[in-house]
Amino acid sequence: xxxxxxxxxxxxxxxxxxxxxxxxxxxxxxxxxxxxxxxxxxxxxxxxxxxxxxxxxxxxxxxxxxxxxxxxxxxxxxxxxxxxxxxxxxxxxxxxxxxxxxxxxxxxxxxxxxxxxxxxxxxxxxxxxxxxxxxxxxxxxxxxxxxxxxxxxxxxxxxxxxxxxxxxxxxxxxxxxxxxxxxxxxxxxxxxxxxxxxxxxxxxxxxxxxxxxxxxxxxxxxxxxxxxxxxxxxxxxxxxxxxxxxxxxxxxxxxxxxxxxxxxxxxxxxxxxxxxxxxxxxxxxxxxxxxxxxxxxxxxxxxxxxxxxxxxxxxxxxxxxxxxxxxxxxxx
Length: 332
Ligand SMILES: NC(=O)c1ccc[n+]([C@@H]2O[C@H](COP(=O)([O-])OP(=O)(O)OC[C@H]3O[C@@H](n4cnc5c(N)ncnc54)[C@H](OP(=O)(O)O)[C@@H]3O)[C@@H](O)[C@H]2O)c1
Hints:
single chain, 2 domains, four-stranded mixed sheet, binds NADP nicotinamide-adenine-dinucleotide phosphate, 38% helix
């Protein structure tokens, strides 16, 4: 069996995770990495070619990828890079700006359909696995609303976007933000109340902040609590810590979550479905989901399919290395 040739586009946390994941998925092989900063990446990666993303003729000819896994940021990188790359090669990405997914899907669908490629968008754990769970829950318990809770463990889950937001505040040298789910909100959903939550009803935010020398903690706290969207609607706790404490006690990218929906079947029998995931590393988990989707992309492409797809459109068996016989015998 020929291996599926995979190219990574963009090398940050998720890109690193994809490289590690490919070492465990032996039906796929990493053929190279393309980046806007190839010198930086080549200092870290020496076993495969690292090429500039600005030279598509060169990376297509030298790497001959079957699938490109796009690991750029959702805010600026993917909207710019995605449609360009979808014209050149089959792609998969983890675009996670939920409100812009319909617009991004349209752009990617046009690019991939016109050029005869397959592009799977917005996969990972949320959007991704949780999207599938939400749709299934609603299909199996009609009328049930599906909710996502994040940071159920004692330490909560690290939010990279909120940590980035803290680091933009003058006087903040470094920071990490942990999200905590509110247990009473989870119970209300489990009880089948289908509550209409306001922002701040489902989660609280805990910030660990290292101050610049001479910075005023009162001013920094005020700025954090008043930051619209990110912190203003939430109950927010702020701890000022040393850089050493932040680096040792709050390291890594742990995260976890729960997709949950409840309602009734028949006239009055309660029904509830839950999907729980716990990740020691959010970017590595996301990378593993991306790699399984790269396998599915190669299969869809072999069937002559074209255009954009999401996790909702792909049979589960396409993600797996298991044969149909194995699945029927042992996994049903
Ligand atoms: N769907 C989901 O469940 C899910 C979960 C987690 C994350 N995500 C998405 O994944 C995206 C990527 O996350 P990430 O943590 O990998 O972001 P990141 O580390 O900030 O990397 C994003 C891009 O920034 C560039 N970069 C990284 N480190 C750099 C450095 N030291 N200097 C200069 N450039 C650097 C890389 O592009 P170049 O190599 O081209 O420079 C990289 O592709 C997020 O934006 C998020 O939207 C989705």
